[in-house]
Amino acid sequence: MYNDTMNEYKDNFFHFVNYSFSKLPTNLMAKFCYDDELFQIPNTEAYLSVDKYNWVLYDENQNNLFSMTNDQFIDIYLAADKKSQRYLEFIADSYLNDYSPDKFDYNFVLYEEIFGDLIEKEAPIKKRWKLILDLFMKKRIYISKYF
Which pTM value belongs to this model? Predict the structure, then answer.
């Protein structure tokens, strides 16, 4: 059960690096909370309650979990990779624009969520033949008209 909790942190959290405050962990994983959430503290049966619009941070070296306000987090940590940088930019934009997703699922892959309706969508049989005919006739193809 505890290994599953640690794997969840590794899978759903993003990597950040401390650049300004030496008393806090240098490398850690973090996630922004849009709603009040509970996180299981590793190797215990206790839970950490994180208020909405705060960050939950996981230090792998100390196997420690703690929270921080958005302003504190931005002042201390930088993204460690491109994926984390994009996540941080998304959080900054949503925080500044007072955006809060209703039911935000952190397990989804962003591209599948955005383009899911376009990926692997099967065209009706009649429209497939029309597409094939249009390809042979070298007409302009607009994929949206075939779905």
Answer: 0.62
Residue 37's DSSP bridge partners are 50
CA dihedral 124, 126, 128, 133 (to 10 degrees): -170
Q: Over the stretch 26-71, which tens digit does the pLDDT of each residue have?
A: 889 999 998 899 988 888 889 999 998 999 999 888 888 999 999 9
Question: Strand order of the sheet with strand 14-18?
Answer: 64-69, 54-59, 27-33, 14-18, 77-79
Q: SS3 letters for the chain?
A: CHHHHHHHHHHHCEEEEECCCCCCCCEEEEEEECCCEEEECCCCCCEEEECCCEEEEEECCCCEEEEEEHHHHHHHEEECCHHHHHHHHHHHHHHHCCCCCCCCCCCCCHHHHHHCCCCCCCCCHHHHHHHHHHHHCCCCCCHHHHC
Reading the block at residue 106, the tokens are: 């952190």
* Residue indicated by tokens 């934009």: 93
Give the number of other Cβ atoms within 10 Å of residue 87's Cβ.
21
